[in-house]
Amino acid sequence: MRCDNIFLDSIGTYLPQSRPLDDVRAAGLVDEREAAEWPWTGVAEAGAISPPDMAVQAGREAMLVSSVPTHCFRMLIHAGSVYQGSVMWPLHHYIQRHTIGDTGTALEIRQACSGGIAALQLAASALTAQRGAGAVLVTGADNHYWFDRFDWLRHHLAHNRSVALLGDAGHGIVVTNTGGFASLDSIATGSVPEFEEAFRLPGQQFPVSTSPPTPDEVRAVTAAAGRHPQWLRVLSFTAARTALATAQQALDDAGVTASDVTYYLPGFMAGAGIADLITRRLGVAVPDGLQDFGRTVGHLSVSDHAIGIAHLSELGLLRPGARLLIGATGFAASMAYAVITIHDQPRARLARPVRVPCE
After folding, report:
1. What CATH number does the domain containing 77 carry?
2. Residue 325's CB: how many other CB atoms inside 10 A?
3. Per residue in 171-220, pLDDT tens?
4. CB–CB of 104/12 below 8 Å?
5. Interior/surface letters 126-139, b for 16+ CB within 10 angstroms, e for the rest
6. At 356, is the secondary structure helix, strand, or coil?
7. How many domains does the chain have?
8. Which pLDDT tens digit goes with each residue over 226-264?
9. Would residue 207 count as lying in a domain?
10. Which residues of 237-274 are buried (b: 16+ CB within 10 A; e: fewer)?
């Protein structure tokens, strides 16, 4: 999908301060071997705050530094990967209520970790169809406080599956059709629908519990897929090929080649996989230090790309003319890639609030 006259005006973030892995080890949540062998040195932990509230704070940050007046917003689009709040709560309207107010409407999408980029695609489509000037506030957030993220990682690695240490974060991006610090040149998406089975609980699918999955249920997802390693291996190759083709499609739609890309932002996965394949096959480069930063916060789900851009902006690496290829994979089933060109100093803030204590 080629995007014409679609821009990023500002970025706001909610990235909790990181908990060092040494502190996690001292608390008995990981052992000495794991702390030494795992590639992460810390993880961003939000504590007792809901993802919608994280999105509200990030969205307000984006609006605070944006050049767009509140009355110009036509829509809010929110993306989350995992548990967001109570059942039947229209949380996207909660976020709308506390950010752009009663202008336009709100949507919620679920594309797992690729949802942040997929939301940009919806925003671009809405603004392309918009008569006259308009803006969309895109938000995303996840808080993994509700389950043991360290046990999740441990159990996945025991079944030979590549997975990341999950960090907590939220973001807000103001997308416009009137100008901004960067142009959104293209977005491409792809999927491997067979991969849904690798994350489906065994047994009856409906009706199900309305509460978050129990630790045993989370482990059951991993164990069920782990019993079919050959099937997983074949699907993983398919996912890698699909991701590579999707990234190439984004470049083609933008009318550029891989040699035109200044930086590739693959997300904070801290391991070999799809990102390494694209780096090798397309010849694109990840910015120096970006993955080191990622190892201090963990994989930030739908917010990897926004946090990455804000971090590079703070380092002064995003100069006019820089071109980015950003990518994300959701539960290995959905892929999304976008090409972005920087035109001016990014209006982006990397907020690092303290962890909200639990009662």
Report:
1. 3.40.47.10
2. 25
3. 999 999 999 999 999 999 999 998 888 777 777 778 877 777 777 777 77
4. no
5. bbeeeeeebbbbbb
6. strand
7. 1
8. 677 777 778 888 888 999 999 999 999 999 999 999 999
9. no
10. eebbebbbebbbbbbebbebebeebbbbbbbbbbbebb
